[in-house]
Amino acid sequence: MKRLPILLAVAVLLSSPLAMAKTVNAVASFSILSDIVKHVGGEHVKVSTLVRPGGDPHSFEPSPQDSKLLSQADVVFVSGVGLEGWLDRLVSASGYKGRVIIASQGTDTLQMKENGKKITDPHAWNSMKNGVQYATNVMNALIAADPQDANYFRQRGTECIQQLQKLDLWAKTQFAAVPPEKRKVLTSHDAFGYFGHEYSVTFLAPVGFSTEAEASASDVASLIKQIKREKVSAYFIENQTDSRLVKQIAVATGAKAGKELYPEALSNAHGPAATYLQAFKHNVDVLLASMK
Ligand SMILES: [Zn+2]
Protein backbone atom coordinates (compact mmCIF):
# COMPACT_ATOMS: atom_id res chain seq x y z
CA MET A 1 0.00 0.00 0.00
CA LYS A 2 2.84 2.33 0.71
CA ARG A 3 4.52 1.87 -2.67
CA LEU A 4 1.72 3.01 -4.89
CA PRO A 5 1.63 6.68 -3.91
CA ILE A 6 5.39 6.95 -4.45
CA LEU A 7 5.21 5.46 -7.93
CA LEU A 8 2.30 7.74 -8.69
CA ALA A 9 4.27 10.73 -7.49
CA VAL A 10 7.20 9.76 -9.70
CA ALA A 11 4.90 9.35 -12.69
CA VAL A 12 3.36 12.77 -12.08
CA LEU A 13 6.79 14.33 -11.73
CA LEU A 14 8.03 12.76 -14.98
CA SER A 15 5.08 14.01 -16.97
CA SER A 16 5.18 17.52 -15.50
CA PRO A 17 6.71 20.33 -17.59
CA LEU A 18 9.38 20.74 -14.93
CA ALA A 19 10.76 17.25 -15.55
CA MET A 20 10.71 17.71 -19.33
CA ALA A 21 12.46 21.06 -19.32
CA LYS A 22 15.78 20.77 -21.09
CA THR A 23 18.43 23.28 -22.02
CA VAL A 24 20.03 22.83 -25.43
CA ASN A 25 23.69 23.78 -25.48
CA ALA A 26 24.08 25.65 -28.76
CA VAL A 27 27.08 27.32 -30.36
CA ALA A 28 26.54 29.91 -33.11
CA SER A 29 29.30 31.16 -35.37
CA PHE A 30 28.62 34.92 -35.20
CA SER A 31 26.53 37.44 -33.27
CA ILE A 32 23.67 37.86 -35.77
CA LEU A 33 23.01 34.13 -36.03
CA SER A 34 23.42 33.79 -32.29
CA ASP A 35 20.62 36.30 -31.80
CA ILE A 36 18.28 34.33 -34.08
CA VAL A 37 19.00 31.16 -32.05
CA LYS A 38 18.31 33.06 -28.79
CA HIS A 39 15.13 34.55 -30.23
CA VAL A 40 13.73 31.16 -31.24
CA GLY A 41 15.27 29.10 -28.43
CA GLY A 42 14.30 31.29 -25.46
CA GLU A 43 14.84 29.71 -22.08
CA HIS A 44 15.40 26.22 -23.48
CA VAL A 45 18.63 27.16 -25.22
CA LYS A 46 21.98 28.39 -23.95
CA VAL A 47 23.84 30.02 -26.85
CA SER A 48 27.58 30.61 -27.01
CA THR A 49 28.86 32.93 -29.73
CA LEU A 50 32.20 32.40 -31.45
CA VAL A 51 32.60 35.73 -33.28
CA ARG A 52 31.34 38.23 -30.71
CA PRO A 53 29.56 41.55 -31.39
CA GLY A 54 31.81 43.84 -33.42
CA GLY A 55 33.94 40.94 -34.67
CA ASP A 56 34.67 40.00 -38.28
CA PRO A 57 33.01 36.66 -39.10
CA HIS A 58 35.21 36.07 -42.18
CA SER A 59 38.58 36.21 -40.51
CA PHE A 60 38.48 34.65 -37.09
CA GLU A 61 41.06 32.78 -35.12
CA PRO A 62 39.39 30.30 -32.80
CA SER A 63 40.96 29.89 -29.36
CA PRO A 64 41.28 26.68 -27.30
CA GLN A 65 38.30 28.04 -25.33
CA ASP A 66 36.20 28.03 -28.53
CA SER A 67 37.24 24.46 -29.17
CA LYS A 68 36.06 23.56 -25.67
CA LEU A 69 32.69 25.25 -26.30
CA LEU A 70 32.21 23.09 -29.40
CA SER A 71 33.17 19.90 -27.61
CA GLN A 72 30.36 20.53 -25.10
CA ALA A 73 27.73 21.57 -27.67
CA ASP A 74 24.51 19.73 -28.55
CA VAL A 75 24.15 21.61 -31.82
CA VAL A 76 26.29 24.07 -33.81
CA PHE A 77 24.86 26.79 -36.08
CA VAL A 78 26.72 28.42 -38.96
CA SER A 79 25.53 30.75 -41.71
CA GLY A 80 27.38 28.80 -44.41
CA VAL A 81 28.07 29.56 -48.10
CA GLY A 82 31.68 30.32 -47.36
CA LEU A 83 31.34 32.75 -44.47
CA GLU A 84 33.05 30.62 -41.85
CA GLY A 85 36.16 29.38 -43.64
CA TRP A 86 37.71 28.67 -40.24
CA LEU A 87 34.98 26.30 -39.07
CA ASP A 88 36.04 22.87 -40.40
CA ARG A 89 39.38 23.05 -38.63
CA LEU A 90 37.72 24.10 -35.40
CA VAL A 91 35.20 21.23 -35.62
CA SER A 92 37.92 18.63 -36.10
CA ALA A 93 40.15 20.17 -33.42
CA SER A 94 37.27 20.08 -30.92
CA GLY A 95 36.19 16.52 -31.60
CA TYR A 96 32.59 17.71 -31.97
CA LYS A 97 30.53 14.94 -33.57
CA GLY A 98 27.06 16.52 -33.55
CA ARG A 99 25.15 18.29 -36.30
CA VAL A 100 26.39 21.48 -37.92
CA ILE A 101 23.28 23.36 -39.03
CA ILE A 102 23.72 25.61 -42.06
CA ALA A 103 21.21 28.36 -41.35
CA SER A 104 21.25 29.72 -44.92
CA GLN A 105 20.17 26.36 -46.37
CA GLY A 106 17.34 26.86 -48.86
CA THR A 107 18.00 30.55 -49.60
CA ASP A 108 18.65 31.68 -53.18
CA THR A 109 22.29 32.67 -53.36
CA LEU A 110 23.87 35.57 -55.25
CA GLN A 111 27.37 36.00 -56.65
CA MET A 112 29.84 38.65 -55.60
CA LYS A 113 33.34 39.67 -56.59
CA GLU A 114 36.22 39.17 -54.23
CA ASN A 115 39.72 40.13 -55.35
CA GLY A 116 38.47 40.04 -58.95
CA LYS A 117 37.13 36.49 -58.54
CA LYS A 118 33.44 35.51 -58.65
CA ILE A 119 32.33 33.77 -55.46
CA THR A 120 29.02 32.96 -53.79
CA ASP A 121 28.04 35.92 -51.64
CA PRO A 122 27.89 34.73 -48.02
CA HIS A 123 25.94 37.72 -46.60
CA ALA A 124 22.52 36.13 -47.13
CA TRP A 125 20.99 37.31 -43.81
CA ASN A 126 20.87 40.91 -45.00
CA SER A 127 17.62 40.25 -46.84
CA MET A 128 14.74 39.60 -44.48
CA LYS A 129 13.29 37.06 -46.91
CA ASN A 130 16.41 35.01 -46.21
CA GLY A 131 16.18 35.88 -42.52
CA VAL A 132 12.86 34.04 -42.47
CA GLN A 133 14.63 30.99 -43.91
CA TYR A 134 17.34 31.27 -41.23
CA ALA A 135 14.73 31.39 -38.46
CA THR A 136 12.88 28.41 -39.98
CA ASN A 137 16.06 26.35 -40.16
CA VAL A 138 16.99 27.30 -36.59
CA MET A 139 13.50 26.37 -35.37
CA ASN A 140 13.59 22.95 -37.06
CA ALA A 141 17.08 22.21 -35.75
CA LEU A 142 16.08 23.08 -32.17
CA ILE A 143 12.99 20.86 -32.45
CA ALA A 144 15.24 18.02 -33.63
CA ALA A 145 17.69 18.64 -30.76
CA ASP A 146 14.98 18.81 -28.10
CA PRO A 147 11.72 17.27 -29.39
CA GLN A 148 10.04 17.54 -26.00
CA ASP A 149 10.07 21.31 -26.31
CA ALA A 150 8.84 21.28 -29.93
CA ASN A 151 5.71 23.30 -29.22
CA TYR A 152 7.70 25.95 -27.41
CA PHE A 153 10.18 26.32 -30.29
CA ARG A 154 7.40 26.27 -32.86
CA GLN A 155 5.58 29.09 -31.11
CA ARG A 156 8.68 31.25 -30.65
CA GLY A 157 9.89 30.46 -34.17
CA THR A 158 6.57 31.50 -35.67
CA GLU A 159 6.63 34.76 -33.71
CA CYS A 160 10.19 35.46 -34.83
CA ILE A 161 9.29 34.76 -38.48
CA GLN A 162 6.29 37.08 -38.28
CA GLN A 163 8.47 39.89 -36.92
CA LEU A 164 11.00 39.40 -39.72
CA GLN A 165 8.23 39.41 -42.33
CA LYS A 166 6.83 42.63 -40.89
CA LEU A 167 10.26 44.25 -41.03
CA ASP A 168 10.73 43.03 -44.62
CA LEU A 169 7.48 44.62 -45.74
CA TRP A 170 8.29 47.84 -43.88
CA ALA A 171 11.74 48.11 -45.53
CA LYS A 172 10.26 47.47 -49.00
CA THR A 173 7.62 50.15 -48.47
CA GLN A 174 10.20 52.67 -47.20
CA PHE A 175 12.63 52.21 -50.09
CA ALA A 176 9.86 52.13 -52.69
CA ALA A 177 8.95 55.67 -51.59
CA VAL A 178 12.46 56.93 -52.52
CA PRO A 179 12.96 57.91 -56.20
CA PRO A 180 15.16 55.25 -57.91
CA GLU A 181 17.91 57.78 -58.82
CA LYS A 182 18.34 58.56 -55.12
CA ARG A 183 18.30 54.94 -54.02
CA LYS A 184 22.07 54.55 -54.07
CA VAL A 185 24.69 54.28 -51.41
CA LEU A 186 28.46 54.53 -51.52
CA THR A 187 30.01 52.12 -49.06
CA SER A 188 33.11 50.06 -48.51
CA HIS A 189 31.08 47.34 -46.78
CA ASP A 190 30.66 44.52 -49.30
CA ALA A 191 27.94 42.85 -47.23
CA PHE A 192 24.92 44.48 -48.88
CA GLY A 193 24.48 42.35 -52.03
CA TYR A 194 21.32 40.58 -50.85
CA PHE A 195 20.03 43.78 -49.27
CA GLY A 196 20.43 45.72 -52.53
CA HIS A 197 18.82 42.92 -54.50
CA GLU A 198 15.81 42.60 -52.20
CA TYR A 199 15.13 46.30 -51.60
CA SER A 200 16.22 47.71 -54.99
CA VAL A 201 19.06 49.80 -53.58
CA THR A 202 22.29 50.26 -55.56
CA PHE A 203 25.46 49.90 -53.52
CA LEU A 204 28.52 51.54 -55.08
CA ALA A 205 31.98 50.55 -53.96
CA PRO A 206 34.39 53.44 -53.35
CA VAL A 207 36.86 53.68 -56.23
CA GLY A 208 40.49 53.10 -55.34
CA PHE A 209 39.79 53.07 -51.68
CA SER A 210 41.32 50.53 -49.40
CA THR A 211 40.17 50.03 -45.82
CA GLU A 212 43.29 48.13 -44.89
CA ALA A 213 45.91 50.66 -45.82
CA GLU A 214 45.76 54.35 -45.18
CA ALA A 215 44.09 56.09 -48.09
CA SER A 216 46.60 57.67 -50.45
CA ALA A 217 46.13 61.17 -51.89
CA SER A 218 45.11 59.70 -55.24
CA ASP A 219 42.63 57.32 -53.52
CA VAL A 220 40.98 60.31 -51.91
CA ALA A 221 40.99 62.22 -55.22
CA SER A 222 39.22 59.34 -57.02
CA LEU A 223 36.73 58.98 -54.21
CA ILE A 224 35.89 62.69 -54.36
CA LYS A 225 35.44 62.47 -58.13
CA GLN A 226 33.17 59.46 -57.76
CA ILE A 227 30.98 61.08 -55.10
CA LYS A 228 30.47 64.10 -57.38
CA ARG A 229 29.81 61.96 -60.45
CA GLU A 230 27.33 59.64 -58.73
CA LYS A 231 25.74 62.55 -56.85
CA VAL A 232 25.70 60.66 -53.56
CA SER A 233 24.93 62.74 -50.50
CA ALA A 234 26.43 60.38 -47.94
CA TYR A 235 29.13 57.76 -47.96
CA PHE A 236 29.91 54.88 -45.63
CA ILE A 237 33.49 53.80 -45.30
CA GLU A 238 34.52 51.31 -42.66
CA ASN A 239 37.46 53.24 -41.40
CA GLN A 240 36.03 56.61 -40.44
CA THR A 241 38.51 57.17 -37.68
CA ASP A 242 40.56 59.51 -39.84
CA SER A 243 38.48 62.63 -39.27
CA ARG A 244 40.85 64.71 -41.40
CA LEU A 245 40.03 62.52 -44.39
CA VAL A 246 36.30 62.60 -43.70
CA LYS A 247 36.40 66.40 -43.47
CA GLN A 248 38.41 66.71 -46.66
CA ILE A 249 35.85 64.64 -48.58
CA ALA A 250 32.97 66.60 -47.05
CA VAL A 251 34.49 69.96 -48.01
CA ALA A 252 35.25 68.85 -51.58
CA THR A 253 31.90 67.20 -52.29
CA GLY A 254 29.31 68.37 -49.78
CA ALA A 255 28.67 64.69 -49.01
CA LYS A 256 28.64 63.61 -45.38
CA ALA A 257 29.99 60.51 -43.72
CA GLY A 258 26.98 58.34 -42.86
CA LYS A 259 26.38 56.81 -39.46
CA GLU A 260 27.81 53.43 -38.62
CA LEU A 261 26.23 50.40 -40.31
CA TYR A 262 25.96 46.91 -38.82
CA PRO A 263 25.88 44.50 -41.79
CA GLU A 264 27.70 41.52 -40.29
CA ALA A 265 28.07 42.01 -36.57
CA LEU A 266 25.82 43.29 -33.83
CA SER A 267 26.75 46.18 -31.57
CA ASN A 268 27.17 45.56 -27.85
CA ALA A 269 24.01 45.30 -25.73
CA HIS A 270 23.80 49.09 -25.21
CA GLY A 271 24.48 49.98 -28.84
CA PRO A 272 21.94 50.69 -31.59
CA ALA A 273 22.16 47.16 -33.05
CA ALA A 274 21.97 44.77 -30.12
CA THR A 275 19.71 42.29 -31.94
CA TYR A 276 19.27 41.11 -35.53
CA LEU A 277 15.96 42.98 -35.80
CA GLN A 278 17.48 46.18 -34.38
CA ALA A 279 20.55 45.94 -36.63
CA PHE A 280 18.42 45.57 -39.75
CA LYS A 281 16.08 48.38 -38.74
CA HIS A 282 19.05 50.60 -37.87
CA ASN A 283 20.71 49.93 -41.24
CA VAL A 284 17.50 50.74 -43.12
CA ASP A 285 16.98 53.96 -41.11
CA VAL A 286 20.57 55.13 -41.64
CA LEU A 287 20.54 54.32 -45.37
CA LEU A 288 17.18 56.01 -45.88
CA ALA A 289 18.41 59.12 -44.07
CA SER A 290 21.40 59.24 -46.41
CA MET A 291 19.12 59.34 -49.47
CA LYS A 292 17.15 62.38 -48.35
ZN1 LIG B 1 31.45 40.40 -45.10
Short description:
This protein is of the alpha/beta class and 292 residues long.
Task: Please characterize this protein's 3D structure.
This protein is α/β, with parallel strands linked by helices. It folds into two domains: 24-170, Rossmann fold (3-Layer(aba) Sandwich); 176-291, Nitrogenase molybdenum iron protein domain (Rossmann fold, 3-Layer(aba) Sandwich). It contains eleven helices and ten strands. A four-stranded parallel beta sheet has the order 2-1-3-4, with helices on both faces. Strands 8-7-9-10 form a four-stranded parallel beta sheet, with helices on both faces. The protein starts with a helix and ends with a helix. 36% of the residues are buried. Bound molecules: zinc ion. The site of zinc ion has 5 residues, from loops.
Q: What coarse outline follows from CA principal-axis ratios?
A: globular
Judged by helices, strands and strand pairing, the structural class is alpha/beta
Bound molecules: zinc ion
Order of helices and strands: HHEHEHEHEEEHHEHEHEHEH
Please give the alpha-carbon distance between the first and last residues.
Answer: 81 Å
Q: Which range does the strand content fall in?
A: 5-15%
Assign the CATH topology of the largest domain.
Rossmann fold
The tally of structural domains comes to 2
**Major sheet size, sense and barrel closure:** 4 strands, parallel
What Rg is obtained from the alpha carbons, in whole angstroms?
A: 23 Å
Label the CATH architecture of the largest domain. Answer: 3-Layer(aba) Sandwich
Whole-number mean pLDDT? 89
Considering the protein shown, what is the CATH homologous superfamily of the largest domain? Nitrogenase molybdenum iron protein domain
- Count of discrete alpha- or pi-helical segments spanning 4 or more residues: 11
- Portion of residues in helices? 40-55%
The count of β-strands is: 10
Major β-sheet strand ordering: 2-1-3-4
- The unreliable regions are none
Q: What would CATH call the class of the largest domain?
A: Alpha Beta
